Amino acid sequence: LTNGANYIVAREGDTYASIGKLFDLSESMLRKFNDVSKGSEPKAGEIVYIERKASRWKGEAYSHTAKRGETMHYLAQTYGIRLDQLSKLNRIRTSDPLADGQIIKLR
Questions:
Q1: What's the pLDDT tens digit per position in 77-105?
Q2: Could you identify which of 10, 22, 53, 84 might form a hypothetical disulfide with 42, taking C-beta atoms 3.0 to 4.6 angstroms apart as the criterion?
């Protein structure tokens, strides 16, 4: 449970279809919950939400300092925030790369 939304951690060989069967959810619904497009599949160790993420962070931290290689999608998954909402809050396109040390608002 992160930010009020339940998730699982993907294992080797998991797909959105196989995870969906376990939780009686459609593959398209899981993709929507996880802000991913058709054709992508979860990697082992990745967070996969099994319900809709919150539109804002409910935790105590106000911001996150980006580290090399982090993306808006990674932060949305880590904090359990919808990607579009996190991007709007920070006025950053979801595809924009994050700079090492960049401050990302969480609320």
A1: 999 999 999 999 999 999 889 999 999 99
A2: 10
